[in-house]
Amino acid sequence: MKRLAGMLLCAAVAFGSVAAPAKDAEMESKIDALLQKMTLDEKIGQLNQQTGTGYSDAMVNAVKGGAVGSILNEVDPEIVNKLQKEAVENSRLGIPLVFARDVIHGFKTIFPIPLGQAATWNPALVEQGARIAAEEASSVGIRWTFSPMVDVSRDARWGRIAESFGEDTYLSSVLGVAMIKGYQTDDLSQPGTMAACTKHFACYGAAEAGKDYNTTWIPEVLLREVYLPPFEAAVKAGSATFMCSFNDINGVPSSGNPYLNRTILRDEWGYDGMLVSDWGSIQQMIPHGFCTDLKDAALKGALAGVDMDMESYAYVNHLKELVEEGKVKESVIDEMVRNVLRLKFRLGLFENPYVDMATARNFYTGKALSAAVKTVEEGAVLLKNNGVLPFKQIKKIALVGPMADDKHNQAGTWCFDLEKEHCVTPLQALTEMYGKDAVVYAPGLEYSRDKNEQGIAEAVEAAKNADVVVMVAGEEAVLSGEAHSRADISLPGAQTKMIEELKATGKPLVLVIMTGRPMTIAYEANLADAALYTFHGGTMAGSAIANLLSGKSVPSGKLPVSLPKMVGQEPLYYNHKNTGRPASGMVLIDDIPLEASQTSTGCTSYYLDAGDGPAFPFGYGLSYTTFEYGDVRLSDDSMGKDGKIEAACTVKNTGSVAASETVQLYVRDLVGSLVRPVKELKGFEKIYLQPGESREVKFTLNASDLAFWTSAKEKIVEPGEFDLWISGDSASGTPVKFNVTE
Ligand code: GLC
Asked: Of 166, 290, 346, 537, which residue is most buried, by most CB within 10 angstroms?
């Protein structure tokens, strides 16, 4: 029940019934009192965040002089304390520094990348991972992380999809809230916490053509319907900070966008946290062609409500001048400084500025490592299994592939503090589990991009002498993440060729994919007898994979992204519009007769070479058992615009092993004043059933959950007919109908 309660609370926060922390009157008076004492230089100093350079003279002088408010990427607790001492005891006003780091999916104990955590559909597990990350990172003085990233990501080419929770707005909202709760708990002033930083505000995931940093064109309704809700949920969850995005939205870079950062974030949502730029994003408004020079960038950043300048040095170099010229009122600076000071007060830094060296470097606890294993296990998606899994009476395993023993790359992107010697690979875990003699290791390729096929023969030979072949394929960590978009999202190097040659041995072939993104792997999965899709899993990836292959644990992951047949389908997402000619009667490219007439292939919306739809749909994932979904039952077949109905379905474990299943609730508004998506996720619940056990899963659907934006100012519930599904993925189930009445 705890897990369910956790999920319901997250969902509640995601949609508004849990309020963000109220302003604390006593804290505000302390802030005002401090502000009164500050010189303009000291105020501007608080707005400056720069990279740590150890206990250097330059850094010490900047800190003592009050010229820096936050330091990022300093993770030596001794240095943190020494610099903090300079700030607290040797600067004029003793304002503490806040130390920040990208703790994106773990600090030392690395968890799956956020896309892999999304595949667990388990907010409580995501919250736990964030909690552990905060305990580890804060033990060296990091009290602010640049996470969660809640950019809805519909394009697999975009390298940063790895850091997201995938293509769905609702799932991103719930899991973003879970991460915030994990980092911050209910009392951010406690030493073991970290301020969250919800990013990148906003629409970064809509970068055109999936090319990182690219422009976005976002109509207001799309902004409101798809990209903003996870950020609004984060405000309600009390995210202490936000971060700008690099991209422009309709020609206005986020770092200079008052509509985004003031009208929406502050005025509409009432946000009182702190907004930090992205790395150099204020300066980057110059190459954007939005600012003439750094002074202009400082002006536009400040007027747009960006409180802290990360690494542009625009504020420290130009804000004073701008104030003196009357172009920026000092009252604007004061508001920015208030937001920074409020963060530091909320973190308790004035009372507890130092790292407790007695508990410093609290890493790799048993709790952390077992939580990491569990998160990988629950985020692994079983795409196919003809019965070869879990292993039965296996005496010899041929373990092959470039990712089978790669400590560095299994961790994925954004692992600044990875200590790869702590990583457990599939080779180590399977050898430990089955014994050295039972596992024959032949990578075949040295790394994922390796085109040298010479090693494949040895892998094929190992396969011929084994009972089962496990090919661990995928992407090196560097092939996803920031600035790492790919126009071809197939398996790099000679991996496909290797899989074909392994297939030719006729031995049972298990394909394990370790990747940072959705990939076009349908062909390879089709060659295999089983396919397990894991997103880079971090420190304990190998242990989890061995547990899954052996049946010690049972796969329960569900795709948080659609896996495409071809990259040309991107952007690809389940909650698309129907169009006036939805795909039907498709004649595919190899079936078109010669000199076929123009209209002979049917005039509907599909690709001649890829047909329509994904290779594997959003929400999809198999188990070692099977689940049967009964008919959906509704408490009523209609509700008013302020009403609600209950939808229930009995789910039965019809197989032979106990397992988890994520039961998903989807709706479709069949007719709207704006066309509506063919499906929308509105709820989910992960349940655990013994063999033969049945459970009634019930969802409450409020009419308000069906509201949609028709403009910047209007969000409405329209009467009409709806379809509703309760199923195990976005592509299955039989809908029932209900109506919303006036
Ligand atoms: C990077 C990323 C951002 C990160 C920041 C600090 O460029 O865009 O996500 O938090 O800089 O490293």
From this structure: 537
- Is the same domain home to 543 and 493? yes
199 lines ligand 1 (CB under 6 A): yes
Task: Please say which residue of 295, 312, 346 terminates a domain.
Answer: 346
Q: Domain for residue 355, yes or no?
A: no
Give the model's confidence band at 20: pLDDT under 50 very low, under 70 low, under 90 confident, else very high.
low
Q: Could you tell me if residue 17 is inside a domain?
A: no
Residues 336 and 403 in one domain: no
Q: How far apart are CA 322 and CA 5, in angstroms?
A: 51
Amino acid of residue 348: G
Which of 278, 284, 306, 413 should be mutated for ligand 1, with most atoms under 8 A from CB? 278
- pLDDT at position 22, please? 66
356, part of any domain? no
Q: 205: burial class by Cβ within 10 Å (0-12, 13-18, 19+)?
A: buried
Same domain (yes/no): 609, 676: no
Question: For residues 502 and 178, what is the distance between their CA atoms, to the nearest angstrom?
Answer: 42
Q: Average the pLDDT over 375-391 and give the result.
A: 98
594 and 634 share one domain: no
Q: 50 CA distance to ligand 1 centroid (A)?
A: 13
Determine the residue type at 502.
L
Ligand 1 proximity of 212 Cβ (cutoff 6 Å): no
Nearest to 371, CA basis, from 117, 146, 688:
117
In this structure, which residue's CA is closest to atom 5 in ligand 1? 279
Specify whether the CB–CB gap between 461 and 398 falls below 8 A: no
Whether residue 544 is found in the same domain as residue 635: no
Residue type, 508: P
In this structure, which residue's CA is closest to atom 7 in ligand 1?
279
Residue 596 has a CB neighbour count (10 Å cut-off) of 11
Q: How many domains does the chain have?
A: 4
Among the listed residues 617, 643, 608, the one whose alpha carbon sits nearest the alpha carbon of residue 727: 617
**Containing structural domain, residue 275:** 44-346
Tell me if 646 sits within 8 A of 635, measured CB to CB: yes
Examine the domain organization and report whether 607 and 631 are in the same domain.
Answer: no
- As a whole-number percent, the residues of the chain with pLDDT over 70 amount to 97
Same domain flag for 413 and 525? yes
Q: Is the CB of 146 under 6 A from ligand 1?
A: yes
Residues shown for the chain: 742
Residue 213 near ligand 1, beta carbon < 6 Å: no
CATH number at 521 reads 3.40.50.1700
Q: Is 1 inside any structural domain?
A: no
pTM of the model: 0.97
| CA dihedral sign of residues 588, 590, 592, 598 | positive
